[in-house]
Specification:
Order of helices and strands: EHEHEHEHEHEEHEEHEHEHHHEH
Number of strands: 12
Number of helices: 12
Bound molecules: NADP nicotinamide-adenine-dinucleotide phosphate
Oligomer: single chain
Strand content: 15-25%
């Protein structure tokens, strides 16, 4: 049996669909049982556990051949990242107590970076879970193409998308969440020893400019990218309600300056199958 956290979200849901399609038994780990009901109807075992509840997670992971661990995104962490430290300790104690056969943790590109930034949350969790005795894979995908869902309204209504990824002709390692989930489902069914890292991006790197031209093709209207000046980011993010925008700003700097990169660079990453156009087409249809 495969225990899947984050199953009501993008990646976790698709991981579960991949496993069910291979006739594998799935335990849906949800924080709200009502949201898990569709998974029960698909034949999944349903258990309730918050990512910060060690007792509930222990029950959720017990008896699992493999567990897929997804920590929900936190775009506005405390300066000392204490939320990630707490989650890491909770996950470690639950996994140690439940002793599943193997673990696949959804991490990120750049988890090995030494400069503090938003992705440091995954660095912290990788370090703590890396101490576990059972086999663990850290799956490190690039920037999700689905982040473009935030741009659909401005592309459609104004024909202008604000870009924090700069310069707008710089290729960025991106990947479709369906590719992330497909690879995660494959990894969950493999056997290996110790700690390993799997890095994953799409077929080719994507520039912000290409996102605009692809939207233009799909929407049948002109769309352009407009870089947001770096010196305005802090006040802009604060005006949007962020208390501590520095980690997010440093993450964007990391992508723009190139120090958020795969450990094995472009040559060392696995490649997905799904391109930007297919992802944007789906996002437009779902809007
Ligand atoms: N966006 C990117 O470019 C990118 C790139 C690399 C890695 N990542 C990583 O990918 C992960 C996000 O994956 P995603 O996009 O699939 O997430 P998502 O669609 O935002 O879904 C988040 C999932 O987490 C669950 N969740 C939220 N709070 C929870 C809690 N307190 N306890 C237990 N479950 C909780 C949600 O359940 P509910 O339905 O109950 O809310 C949902 O199932 C993050 O760790 C992020 O850092 C993202």
């Amino acid at each position: 049996m495969f225990a899947i956290t984050g199953i009501t979200g993008k990646v976790g849901g698709e991981v579960a669909r991949n496993l069910l399609a291979s006739n594998q038994p799935v335990r849906a780990v949800v924080r709200d049982l009502r949201k898990g009901e569709p998974w029960a109807q698909l034949g999944c075992d349903l258990v309730r556990a918050d990512i910060n509840d060690a007792g509930a997670l222990t029950s959720a992971f017990k008896g699992a051949e493999s567990v897929f661990v997804l920590v929900p995104p936190n775009f506005d962490p405390s300066p000392d990242f204490h939320e990630a430290r707490t989650t890491a300790a909770t996950l470690k104690s639950a996994i140690e107590a439940a002793r599943p056969g193997r673990v696949v943790y959804l991490s990120t590109i750049g988890a090995q970076a030494t400069q503090s930034n938003l992705l440091t949350q995954h660095t912290i969790i990788e370090q703590v879970l890396g101490e576990l005795s059972m086999p663990i894979t850290f799956l490190r995908p690039g920037w999700f193409m689905e982040n473009c869902s935030w741009d659909i309204a401005s592309a459609t209504n104004d024909g202008v998308i604000s870009s924090f990824l700069q310069p707008i002709d710089k290729p960025v390692p991106m990947v479709a969440t369906a590719d992330v989930a497909r690879v995660a489902a494959e990894l969950l069914q493999e056997t290996w020893n110790g700690r390993r890292v799997v890095e994953l991006e799409g077929l080719h790197r994507v520039t912000p400019h290409e996102i605009a031209t692809t939207f233009a093709d799909l929407l049948g209207r002109p769309v352009r990218m407009e870089p947001v000046p770096r010196e305005t980011w802090e006040s802009l993010f604060k005006s949007q309600g962020m208390k501590n925008p520095i980690p997010r700003i440093k993450m964007l700097d990391g992508f723009n300056e190139g120090w958020i990169e795969f450990e094995g660079d472009v040559a060392g990453s696995r490649k997905g199958k799904i391109g930007l156009q297919a992802v944007l087409q789906t996002l437009i249809e779902l809007r």
